[in-house]
Amino acid sequence: MDAAFTDEQQEIRRTLRELLRKRCGPDEVKAAVRTAAGYDEALWRSLAGPLGLPGMALPAEYGGAGFGPTELVLACEETGRALLPSPLFPTAVLAAPLIEALGTDAQRRALLPRIASGAVTAALAVPCPLGAALGLTAPSGDGAGGDRVSGDWAGGDRVSGDWAGDGRAGGIQARHAPGAPWRLYGEAGQVLGGHTAGLLLVAAHTGGYARSRIRLFLVDGGAPGLVRARLTALDETRAQARIQLRDVPAEPLGGVEAADAAADVAADAADGPDPGPALALTGALAAAAIAAEAVGAADQALATTLAYVRAREQFGRPVGSFQAVKHRLADLYVRLQAARSTAYYAGCDTDDGRAVSGPLALAEALAALRAVAGEAIQLHGGVGFTWEHHAHLYFKRAVSDELLFGPGYALRARAAGQARLFENLGLGLVAA
After folding, report:
1. What's the Cα-to-Cα distance from 422 to each of 83, 186, 418, rounded to whole Å?
2. Class of 278-419 in CATH
3. Which residues, given as ranges, of the chain have pLDDT below 50?
4. CA 73 to chain centre
5. 3-state DSSP helix/strand/coil % of the chain, to nearest 5
6. Residue spans per domain, the chain
7. If we measure between CA atoms, which residue out of 325, 311, 305 comes closest to residue 394?
8. Which of 70, 97, 9 shows the shortest CA–CA distance to 351?
9. How far, in Å, CA of 47 to CA of 299, rounded?
10. Residue 422 has what pLDDT?
């Protein structure tokens, strides 16, 4: 794919790359992830204030920059290049689009300007694998009205799925008494950015097990009964948390009337906003953003490796002059460019309101990053295996993202199911 970006888009990339080059080197990354917040708060304020990064894809009427998913994906490529630890992904990619799509006008006007300015960060809490919840590895949600049968959320496949946890004895439950606020009970693990988020979007069951539906709720980060703990993660640059909700007050995303309708026994009479289509598009944006991050990280890892093999000498000549090394690096370059094309295509696809190319782009990008990072460690020799060197950061990012959003074979199977490649072959892989 030959992506021709506008001058404005190129300026976004250039400005962000220069800032991160100055303030987010490997040493700064290692120092930032070991703070209580898990990221450099001063740098985040710079990204959120003058650059408006968290509000890049939000409409101007809500304090955003008015750009689209393409610009946000390009920004994510630069943050991935620096392995930037920040609340950008959970806030701008996961939470903000859902609030914009499903929130009431009052909710949007109260929350989105604060998100766009960086005054508040947000996180999406779902008690199931994030890749499944976003429809990247399997259709998710309960668009048909129950937690046991999912609707047509991400490509027309109809298989069982449950993105708010087990409806009978686990997951997160929402209870509502007349005249009282909604209350949430349960637990969610691996919530990206959840330990510091000022706002949580929580997926919870309403209506009990027999009539269960899944809706999103807004929970204030300081709400009573909310217990949060940062988890030890393989990739420290992408902080994760365990969220426990113990009789926590919550506000339904979309308004009280929508949640009341969702709990009604007559599922087909419910007139509340179905989170399915919005979650599918959010999943597509997330896939494109993570793919772009992986491409940026792989590009930087390859550039660092090239510089090393040019300078490192063995047998009186640079290591990079050996034919075997040249071939390995050439293969990595071709793989990286292919992944970059799929990531850009996924970003443009999302910009057009479609959600079909994300899983494949993500699978290709994560595979490319893992290959580049692995070769970077090998070609750096003994120094690449030490914790003091930064090569391991890229490898851990690749492995961690595949665990969070993959695995790769499930992403590819999902893409094949969306494209209905095997529909007429009788292989039973349509909804894989």
Report:
1. 37, 39, 10
2. mainly alpha
3. 141-161, 167-169, 261-271, 430-432
4. 11
5. 50, 15, 35
6. 7-120, 125-273, 278-419
7. 305
8. 70
9. 22
10. 75
> What radius of gyration do the chain's Cα atoms show?
22
Triad 229, 187, 31: Cα angle to 5°: 25
Q: What is the pLDDT of residues 346-397, one digit of tens each?
A: 988 787 666 678 899 999 999 999 999 999 999 998 787 787 888 999 999 9
Q: Which CATH class is domain 125-273?
A: mainly beta
CA–CA separation, 37 vs 236, rounded Å? 11
The predicted model scores a pTM of 0.87
CATH superfamily label, 7-120:
Acyl-CoA dehydrogenase/oxidase, N-terminal domain (1.10.540.10)
125-273 and 278-419: identical CATH topology: no
One DSSP character per residue, 67-116 reads: --HHHHHHHHHHHHHTT--SSHIIIIIIIHHHHHHHS-HHHHHHHHHHHH
Residues in the chain: 432
302-325: pLDDT as tens digits: 999 999 999 888 888 988 889 999
Q: What is the model's pLDDT at position 168?
A: 47
Contacts of 61 (CB under 8 A, 6+ apart): none
Which amino acid does the sequence have at 217? F
Helices 275-311 and 358-379: angle between axes, nearest 10 degrees: 20
Tell me which residue of 129, 89, 91 sits closest to 404, measured CA to CA: 129
* 32 CB neighbour count, 10 Å cutoff: 24
